[in-house]
Amino acid sequence: MQYVLLLLCVGGAHLVPLEQLYLTNSEKCGYDSCQATSPGMLNVHIVPHTHDDVGWLKTVDQYYYGSRNNIQKAGVQYILDSVVKELWESPKRRFIYVETAFFWKWWVRQPPSVQQKVRVLIAQGRLQMVGGAWSMNDEAASHYQSTIDQFTWGLRKLNDTFGQCGWPHVGWQIDPFGHSREFANLLSMMGYDGLFLGRIDYQDKRARLLGKNMEMLWRGDDVLGKSSDIFTGVLYNTYSPPPGFCFDVLCSDEPIIDDATSPLYNVETKIPVFLDYVKNQARYYKTQNVIVTMGGDFTYQDASMWYINLDKLIKYSNLKAARDGLNISVFYSTPNCYLKSVKEANPTLPTKKDDFFPYASDPTAYWTGYFTSRPTTKFFEREGNNYLQTMKQLQVLADLDKHNEFVLNELKSAMGVMQHHDAITGTEKQHVTHDYERLLNQAIDDAFIIAKQAFNKMILKDSMRKPMFDFQRCHLNESSCQVSENSDNFVVTVYNPLGWSVKEPIRIPVPAGTFEVFGPYGTIMKTQMVPLAAKVKNIPTRVSKATQEIVFLTELKPLSYRSFYIKKRLRPKRSAKQGSYDYYPSINQNIWSNDPSKTDYEKYLTTESIPDPPVYLEDIPNIYDKDVNFDVLKTNANDKEHKMLDLEKILDNRKKIYKTTNDHETKDGSHDNDQKNIDFEKILVANRQKIGKNNNNDPVFDPFKTGLSDNDQKMLELEKILVENSKKIDNTNNKEPIYDILKDMPHDNKHLFDFEKITIDDKQKIDTKITNEPTYDILKDGLRDNNKKLLNFEKMTADDSKKIDKSNSFDILKDELQNNYQKVPDYEKNPFDDRKKTDKSNNEPNLDVLKGGPHDNDNQKILELEKILVHNSNKKVDSKGSTEPRPFNYPSMFSNEELRMLADEPHHAVKDEDEIIIGNQHFKLEVNRATGIIKKIIFPDNSRTNFSINMYYYIGTCGDNHDTAHRASGAYIFRPSSNVPIKLETLNTDIIKGDIVQEIRLDLSPAGYLDVKFYDNQNYLEVEWVVGPIPILDDTGKEYIIKYETHIANKGKFYTDSNGRQILERCRDHRPQWNVSLQEPIPGNYYPVANQIYIKNSRDFRMSVLTDRSQGGSSMIDGEIELMLHRRLLCDDAFGVGEALNETAKDKGLVARGKHRVYLGISKDNLKKQVVEMHQPPILLFADATNIKYDDWFAMHNEFSWLERDLPKGIHLLTLEPWDSQLLIRLENYYNDKNASAEVNLQDLFKNIRILAIEEMLLAGHRPVEGYKKWTWKKDGGKEKTDSVKGGKTNNLIVTIKGKEIKTYLADFEIREHSTQVKATSLGMLGRYEVTTVV
């Protein structure tokens, strides 16, 4: 009967829903749910967990759904399904979960009944969330802004769904490959009480085990002091279960079999092994508590296997401990409960003030390669962050509809996934990389609707009007943009996401042609056209028609946009009244009307076209600034066909445009030598009167406007000399050049006019009346005195410091031609041989090759033209100014001094024949023209120091990894085969000079490119680098680095940032808290560089390099900074990826392009402001304006700033985003001084937003600071007390932020009407006009 009553009682109990039974104790979550520990006993905390990578060997979706199990047997949905079911079976069981991205993906797909069970489990502390971020982020390559964002996003989901019971109390970083000090600081500011780590360096771990220092107090920031401290524990066995105790379907360990009748019974053997393990672990920790992790990668897909065996393990361990008097208590627990037990034990902890980089797992396995692996993905993540910050801001500032937050949340999720320690690190399989990029790219595209709506609303001044601009983003890292390449008229809107004004260079890719850029008020912007380098144009993934970039500098107010109207300009027709046109508008004021009511553009539309002025010597530099493409003479073999075609078109212009008008005079030779010179000059000048065309019949860009190579300059100067005669000779009425003047000439001295033939035309294109064999003697006799300077070429170069001597006779040519001009024999090669096979050992030009023939070799012709030009630089001048004879005495050009006087930038003087000076107001570089080697940097006070920039590569070790000696370099591991990198050779050097930017471009071999840029009045060098496709035909992988080399005596010390925020000192071959032994000295001295690395000497003269993405860096030699740029390897390093890091695109090695900014000088500034400006550069949006007239655009609201003024110095608006009906605002004081406080008045901060009240929150925004009390610990040297943080909602809107603090507020607000910025009248703007035509 009693059994019947018991059965009825049990059955009756089930009449009450389990949810109601368990909810009676719902308040016992978090620390309140922890089991009390037993004093005087070893408390063993069994922590069931799973580690679910948000992408690694499989994509996020493949992991969640359990797809592609042939790669890895893993399905996250089955894990959570199974765990919830098993937890529901017993109230004693515990489980922790980390990755909110997976949990949320699962949560939204569950029925209400399952969701209710989960709420109960969390409310009772049986299921606890740890970490809580969207993913378990990396700590080396990640940036603090993105880390904060992804914690904010994950914790918000947990807080909104589960309230306080959903708050994680500990960080759980069990798998990242090293740990950063700034991350510890961020967790402390988020209110976390502790942090648990899985991986630390094997030598560090050994030292900590021996010293019982596996748990410590980690100080996150020296300036913030004790408020940044956080308890940090290193797990004993990474995150794996004890050997032999993995009870998962993925494991092969024996289960616990407690059937005494079975021959497999093993309780008596397994339990003692486990108890011995935990007793041994306890020897290395300071309290009577040990944490035993029971789980691994994607474990618990069948959770019953775990819990059945863990139940037995706990039961029989406690029985044996009690029976044998072992004083051991084993129970289910969580990291929260373990931390609480340690806190109650109140141990004295050591303090750590550095970080855990670099991480090594054995003597040859330094995990420093991933600092750089997959550089294009790392850059894309940085771009994604900038788009995310911009979209969050615009959603608020433009007061857009709330439904946009759906796409904004999609972008938050994608960026959270990108922070995962196998995503931004580049340590995943290739197809997973593509999926990460797909996710982020799709999210940015979807969120771009916010930018489109915001700028259309602001620019059109009416939210109800139909949008006019379909804004697009462009692939500017490849200098590619569909809008700017295919639209004659387009609009570029530039947005500054920072809280202070910036001045930034803007570069817009465009095809060949002439463009004008109109600023917001109709001002024609000062611009410069810069040709794209062949290395950029040939990036395999690039699909673009752009051949050049429009470059201009613009100033942007804080949180502002500026809109620019860009118009492709067609060259106007020439005026028929060329002779009567006034060519001096600065004197006669007849180009522009003085009507103040017209903008520059309106004046441009109503002004007659301006013909070319007459030729005068003083106008020569301007006359030759036309659109003929003389790039044909450069040496890129890839463009040989295009170049030869352009050359032929240039030459063909002489015949097509000009015709003989006085044949009877030319036939009988009645023209004197003056007329002959004039005609020859006209032939050359005629070419400049017509724009060259390419195969697409598009205008060909003229490189003379932006910079000349040495050979181009020489060709130009030769033509200038020939043109010069027109100054003193009557031009008469004969306007057309006469070709027949060249007909009746003797044939004895034909060599000089072999070159003249090149300049005029080849024999197949010259009028048939002209003799095919040109001669010299016409220049020998009868020349007028006023023309003697024409061919006195040798005198011009005899002494660079003297002006041209006009008294010498041309008779010098008679002897020179006979004595020095020797015909070079033809190359003994097939005329159709490829150019790269041409013998270059003979440096003498072969003029005969340039003659026409049935088997013309275009490549050979180009080579010989180059040799002709190069020969002029071979003459040596002794101290007395005399010259040595040369085998080939081709006429010289202007002296170096004369070239300097004719240059666009006279202050950039050529130092001597082999060195050039290039720079701006802050720096100048001394460069060897021939080698491209940068030798020195010169400062405004004329002081100088050695400085050079070079590219190298390490050869990656390739091994089978069966032992440490055969470790391969791979996605994780950096292991070069030699400690000495191989330097790349310079192939070509190009110089670009202009008013806005000056550049020195170096083509490097193999597979390298550098472009050092000096922008006008900017105090940095911008170094653009391109690497790839990295060659592997020699069956060796390569790891490319760049070195910045100086003589700074940094004594083995260098400084790198921690996640883009604080700076840490590094010492070569040294670790602050333990003695290191380095078998791999290069990888062992590499550190992550998120934004900045610098070296300095005792006088604080420093060189700082700012990066545009995460890279590995070091200073292996005093005075040098090296940064790894790109990696392509052929072997796997055997740490799980299972494939080599061999990225390809379009069946070629992946090309990476990026930039650094280099600052040099005496300074103590940590450059934080400049770092932020490079991390969040202006966003460019492009819109076609084909159907939008300029007048309509000009009437729009083309500039606006949402801030009333710049934020106070040192204050950075880190976050502005919508938060339900409130705003989330984060303000950071980036000064590295706790006394550098700043006040910010939030009430009038924004023009269109009135802040009504604020509540201060912890850093992640999930928890108010009011009531939060930071835990204090005893530490070596004494105990420090920390007061609770004061907070609460307040109407006091003036906030004070101390140095290095980040303050987070939830703000009540209202939108207020703001006055529309009134466009200044044309009259008021006249003084600001910069009337500059882009050519």
Unreliable stretches (pLDDT < 50, length at least 5) are 1-26, 575-643, 649-709, 725-843, 869-894, 897-911, 1316-1335
User: What is the CATH superfamily classification of the largest domain?
Assistant: Glycoside hydrolase 38, N terminal domain
Q: Please tell me the CATH architecture of the largest domain by its name.
A: Alpha-Beta Barrel
Determine the mean pLDDT: 80
Which structural category fits the helices and strands?
A: alpha+beta
Strand count, sense and barrel status of the largest sheet are:
9 strands, antiparallel
CATH topology of the largest domain: 7-stranded beta/alpha barrel
Q: Tally the helices: what do you get?
A: 32
* Span of the ends, CA to CA: 105 Å
CATH class of the largest domain: Alpha Beta
Number of domains: 5
The percentage of residues in β strands lies in 15-25%
Shape: globular
What does the radius of gyration come to? 37 Å
Helix content: 25-40%
Give me the count of strands.
50
Name its key features:
single chain, alpha+beta, nine-stranded antiparallel sheet, 5 domains, disordered C terminus, disordered N terminus, 26% helix, 1335 residues
